[in-house]
Specification:
- The protein has about 290 residues and is mainly β.
- It has no helices and 24 strands.
- About 0% of the residues lie in helices and about 35% in strands.
- Strand 3 and strand 4 form a beta hairpin.
Length: about 290
C-alpha cells in the first residue's frame, strides 16, 4: 500500500504587529495512522525551540525548528511561516505555571519528535526599572484591565491598560530609594476571573548614563542565516540595517533577510520601547558557518 500524508491548511495566516502569525491547521491533522512511526526520521531528535518566553499576557509565541515539519502546540497544529520559524497565535490566554506541550510531526514521514514542555511565566511587568522619585511608572499586562501600583504593599495609583496591554501610572506619593514596587491587575470586562501580579521590584539608583536593557539575539547570526530573531519588550520598535521591525505581544522581533550577510559583518540593532524609552543598543558580528 502506498504510504501518504495529507495536511489540510486553514489559510495562509494573518498579519499582526509587523509579523505573520500562522493560523492553526484543522483541529485534527489528517495523517494516515499507518505511516506514523514508519522508519527513522531525523526529526525524532529535534524538539521545538522557544524564542523568548510564553507569557500569561501574550497571544503569540514563536518557535524554531525544521522546515519540513508541522508544529503541535497543546494539540493545535501549525505550519511554519518562513525558514523553520513558527509564529503561533495562542487560542486563549494562559496562566502562570500552565504547561505548553510541543512537538514536531514530519511532513515527509509522519514521524513525531519527542515532546518538549514549556511553562508560562508572568507577563505583567514594570519596564524600565523604577528610579527614586519617579513621576511615571510604565509596564505591560493583559489589555482592558485595572492596574494598581503598589509601593511597599500600599496602593499608590491606578490606571487602565490600553491597546495591547500597555499602562502608565503617575504615583500619588514620592517613591523612596529601596522601596518595593509591584502592580496588581484585575479584569474590567470579565475576560479572566483571577488577579494578576507582577514581580516585586526594588527601587535602586540608576547608573549615570546607563540605558535600560535593549534587544537580545535568540540565535547566533551566520553567513547562511535567512532570519534574525530578537527578544525585546512587547511591541518595541527595533531598527536594523535602516529598517524598523516591531515586537509582538511576546516581545519577539523577526527580521527576514533579503540576502545573506558576509561573515565578519558587524551590525547594530537599536530599540525604542512601547513608551518611547531608548534602550541599550546591541552590536553583534556575523560569523562563518564553515
Amino acid at each position: 500500500m502506498k504510504k501518504r500524508i495529507l495536511i489540510v491548511a486553514a489559510g495562509l495566516g494573518i498579519t499582526l504587529g509587523g509579523i505573520t502569525v500562522g493560523n492553526p491547521i484543522t483541529s485534527q491533522a489528517a495523517i494516515d495512522a499507518d505511516i506514523v512511526g514508519v522508519g527513522h526520521d531525523p526529526i525524532q531528535n529535534i524538539v521545538p525551540f522557544l524564542a523568548g518566553n510564553i507569557l500569561d499576557s501574550s497571544k503569540d509565541a514563536t518557535f524554531i525548528g525544521p522546515s519540513n515539519a508541522i508544529l503541535v502546540v497543546n494539540g493545535q497544529y501549525y505550519r511554519e511561516n518562513t525558514n523553520g520559524v513558527f509564529h503561533v497565535r495562542l487560542p486563549n490566554y494562559l496562566d502562570v505555571g500552565d504547561s505548553v506541550v510541543t512537538k514536531f510531526i514530519s511532513t515527509s514521514s509522519g514521524v513525531s519528535s519527542a515532546t518538549r514542555v514549556y511553562t508560562t511565566i508572568s507577563g505583567t511587568t514594570i519596564e524600565p526599572k523604577v528610579s527614586p522619585g519617579a513621576t511615571r511608572v510604565f509596564g505591560s499586562t493583559r489589555p482592558n484591565s485595572q492596574v494598581t501600583l503598589l509601593v511597599n504593599g500600599e496602593p499608590a495609583g491606578s490606571a487602565l491598560s490600553f491597546g495591547y496591554g500597555q499602562w502608565n501610572i503617575a504615583p500619588r506619593i514620592h517613591i523612596p530609594l529601596g522601596s518595593n514596587v509591584s502592580v496588581r491587575v484585575t479584569s474590567i470586562n470579565n475576560s479572566y476571573t483571577h488577579t494578576l501580579s507582577s514581580p516585586v521590584y526594588k527601587v535602586t539608583t540608576p547608573t549615570p548614563g546607563s540605558l535600560p536593557k535593549g534587544p537580545q539575539l535568540v540565535q547566533t547570526v551566520t553567513d547562511q542565516s535567512k532570519d534574525i530573531l530578537f527578544t525585546a519588550t512587547p511591541y518595541a520598535r527595533v531598527t536594523l540595517l535602516g529598517t524598523e521591525h516591531w515586537a509582538d505581544s511576546a516581545g519577539i522581533v523577526h527580521v527576514k533577510l533579503g540576502t545573506t550577510l558576509k561573515a565578519g559583518t558587524t551590525l547594530t540593532a537599536t530599540m525604542v520601547d512601547d513608551f518611547s524609552h531608548t534602550r541599550e543598543p546591541l552590536t553583534f558580528t556575523v560569523i562563518s558557518s564553515r
